Amino acid sequence: MTENELPVGTTPPFARMHRWLKRGLFVCLFGLVIEGALTVPALALWYGWPSLSLTEICSELMKVRYSDDSLDCTQPYPLSGPPFGGAPEGAGQQTARDQWGIQPVPQYPRVGFRELVRIHDEREATDSR
Amino acid sequence: MTSMTLDLHEDESRRAQKAADRWLIVGSILMGSLVLGPLGLPVFCRGIYLLHKAQTAGLSVRPMMVTLIGYVIIIDAAINSIGWGLDVFANHALITRTIFTAWGNLMDGGYFWHYNELWIGGAGAPGEKSWIIICIVVVFPMRIAAGIAFLQMRRWGHQWMIVTCWFGLITWLGYIINMTMYADVRYAGVAFPVIGWWLYNIFYITPFLAIPYLHTVNREIFSD
Amino acid sequence: MAGRNGMSEQDRRRHRALIVFQIVVYGAMVAMFLVQLQMFFVKDW
Question: Where are the domains of chain B?
């Protein structure tokens, strides 16, 4: 048995290439899995969970993207909604701020780390006053 | 070698292969679920370890690269399909709306800008829906089917892996070019423009890693 | 077909073609990334 046994299917000219491809694939696999698992927790934390519930985060994001503080996420959304023919939640909105043209440019503000919590609390404070 | 030892060898090889595959499949399913991913990884790695052990013991099992490419390509396609499937078919579920718009706001404005305003709901960025639909309806199912046949060491599996991985080239480049055309929509007002998206998505280049192998592997190892 | 020097002519051509493929593909992706990065520096995102 040769010392450096090549894997089945791999011929000597391509052994090194195959070895590096294998390493690359392992890196991708680990990367995909770890980031896949961390995505939801990371997003939840950035956008204010657990100070804000999921529905509140949904509503806050909706207010930002349509620049309208009166919007809220209807929960649960009727099953007749998209893609089954019903109207989507943003249908008919008029408040979104964009520079329209062939290349639209959104005009909403950036949301920083847990900034939604501050925005939400400030609005609650002014509303209750 | 007598025919009895050959049978024994084949039998043992088959059993070792099945044992490894059981761990690999369960690991893949867990990883495909995203949330249970970290559980799936050690399970999957145990399958790889069993395969490696069988190989060094001289059993005729599937080559490591074929196993790795097959499973990783399938997992890649499955994760993408789940994500985009949600965007098309479940875009008004609370978890979808919240997580997608959050992700969009953090890294890719295409999933934030006018989200759920299109008649079909979901991402509204120019061109995005076309890419999503063609991928989940054509590209990923074909890739998964080819991956399964490839893992079964079938010749058509090997051939169709080549085809579907080249699809991946078109998909990747087409998708990025579309993003670049409408870069303002994708990146304005986003927490981590450009860098966020690229760091997150770079791990999906698995078809590009598979293509050189598929073209240089000895085709004789694939049968039927 | 395999030469005694290890790599046949076909293998050599294939090897070079795949190197070219990888350079082109990863090069295209890097180019797209740089284009986007340049936009990021120029525009007010």
Answer: 1-61, 63-221
